[in-house]
Amino acid sequence: MTGLTAAELSAKLQSREISAQEAAEAHFDRIETIDGDYGAYLLLCREEAMKQAEAAQAMLDAGDAPALCGIPYALKDNIVTKGITTTCASKVLEGWVPPYSASVYQQMQNQGMVLLGKTNLDEFAMGTSTENSAYQLTRCPWDPHCSPGGSSGGSAAAVSAELAPISFGSDTGGSVRQPASLCGVVGFKPTYGRISRYGLVAFASSLDQIGPFGRTVEDTSLAFEAVAGHDRHDSTSLPNAAYSSKELKSGSLKGLKMAIPKELFGDEVDPGVKEVFERGIKKLQAEGAIVSIVSLPSLQLGVTTYYIIAPAEASSNLGRYDGIRFGPRIEEGDHNKSTAMTRGQLFGHEVKLRIMVGTYALSAGYYDAYYHRAQQVRGLMADEMAEVMKEHDVIISPTSPVSSFRLEDDSLDQMALKMLDLCTIPANMGGFPSISIPCGADNDMPVGLLLTGPVMGDEKLLQAAWAAEQALGFVGRRPPIL
Ligand code: GLN
Q1: Shortest-distance atom of ligand 1 to CA 171
Q2: 208 CA distance to ligand 1 middle (Å)
Q3: pLDDT at 88 > cutoff 70
Q4: With CB atoms counted within 10 Å of each terminal CB, which end of the chain scores lower, N or C?
């Protein structure tokens, strides 16, 4: 049962060939058997899940239930769940039980979807390998010595290892698409504002967006449909945010104009990844896609620009963790000392680094030189991309310059890891929808293809991704797990 896609599982649930309880149990059984080897989940919520499954079954029995009613799923542990611990993989939030639910979680409960558990991530979603989690390592299902990518590594690994048919992560600079690429699954970051951020713990609010994972574009589209829509609790939520999967399979590559920015396909890209990407492009061309190379010079500045804007916003957002409002507090005499001790000891290294960089970039005297400049470059990047999208349907590139890399590899320092965000960052800068689909494999390790479309072009982008998925023929290839 765990090998079925969400669409297949849904058909069986709707026809009542299987029950929502059976679907949940099958996933818990597999998680208990193999997740010890992968560490995708930080927390399982079995008791709550069985209650949700029972409610789902009642909806299914009554007839006319929503498409994903009874479907089990996982949430990245920076999406708040009322009554269920939410840690952001940080010691600062250890044991924190939220008094409210994220809008996405509420929406999925309303549709009878069944939450299996919360998945591992880099602390506060800051990272590219999930190694910055304060709690555990997560391993790539294709090779347990390797990283699943990050920061939503747990959500990507869970879907890849068939520990959930769908899951959700958050994407600030690539954290849904890059782990999807490394784990051989589909990961989608919608247009900024199509999925509510209410209850997503803020990292860099102007870039953050929740996004779904699936083993197929169809499942990813169904998961997006379940949570897309305007939300009055999120001031950046778009008015016409709802989405329907109905037209997904009308997608075709015939005459579809695709642009490859040469700045995302230079020496940074590993030769093995290049080869897989080029082979993929040939398959798309064979189905009628028209591929051209373009130049978007500002994209070269994406990584440096992002690593000013994201830490700047993070330094402000993370000011709320003082040990009083949330999580544990280290008492050290007076108030200021206690707050300093709490933050100093309970935040991890990478988080502290970013708070310092961000505070510096925003401070009087440096604001213009760093933050203001970065915002100007951000505008330039968005404009250049929007301009190319007037003449082309999608911008494409590899999702990540490399396939999965070894865990705890000393040759990859934090700077090298940051360079891996080259291809994914541009979409966040302009709020563009962007999706990673498996393109092929290099030495049995998956390589992702990234497709990015114009703002509010999510429908067409997903159609293009669906058509590309058919042409690439990776669907059905699973990691070597029993
Ligand atoms: N790797 C990027 C970072 O470390 C992106 C993270 C994300 O999208 N949450 O900030």
Answers
A1: 8
A2: 9
A3: yes
A4: C
